[in-house]
């Protein structure tokens, strides 16, 4: 009798260890990794994986204003019409923007993996130093979350960046050394 009890207990623990079958896979946002020259305009797409029966999502985008100038946010995918809060609007700081999308049908929408959910356009400052500058999703202004109809869930995020390329200009200053007696 004890062995049957142990067996049932072990089976119960194994089922509790992996409950992912109850809610499917977790929504994942993937922020592009792009390269751009100083002074150029660059698009950073935020794509989604495991976008199945999603009823809504929201969050905050953060970026470095010492290297990037915000230009715009848009929804490049038909049927995904995000609402955006731009930098400096209301309580949104200048280095952030917010996004929200809701499916009002009540049944949720599904999209193939790597579908672009929204696009943020930046101008790289002309004097931006070379190197990577992060473009991140988080909950700093609006909570990063999504819904499948049973409360809110935190998505996975693969953060991105803009790699500012070297301007290619190097200045070499040579010091002129005079000879004794030169004036």
Explain how this protein is built.
With 183 residues, the protein is mainly beta. The N terminus is likely disordered. It contains 2 helices and 15 strands. Strands 2, 5, 7, 8, 11, 12, 13 and 15 form an 8-stranded mixed beta sheet that branches. A 5-stranded mixed beta sheet has the order 6-10-3-1-14, with no helix packed on it.
Please supply descriptive tags for the structure shown above:
about 45% strand, 8-stranded mixed β-sheet, disordered N terminus, 2 helices, about 180 residues, elongated, 15 strands, single chain, mainly beta, 5-stranded mixed β-sheet
Instruction: Write down the overall geometry.
Output: elongated
Terminus-to-terminus distance: 108 Å
The quaternary structure here is single chain
Count the helices. How many?
Answer: 2
- Element-by-element helix/strand order: HHEEEEEEEEEEEEEEE
Instruction: Please tell me the overall pLDDT.
Output: 84
Radius of gyration, taken over Cα atoms and rounded to an integer in Å: 25 Å
Structural class computed from helices and strand pairing: mainly beta
Strand percentage: 35-45%
Indicate the percent of residues in helices.
10-25%
Largest sheet: 8 strands, mixed
Q: What low-confidence regions span 5 or more consecutive residues with pLDDT below 50?
A: 1-23
Strand elements, count: 15
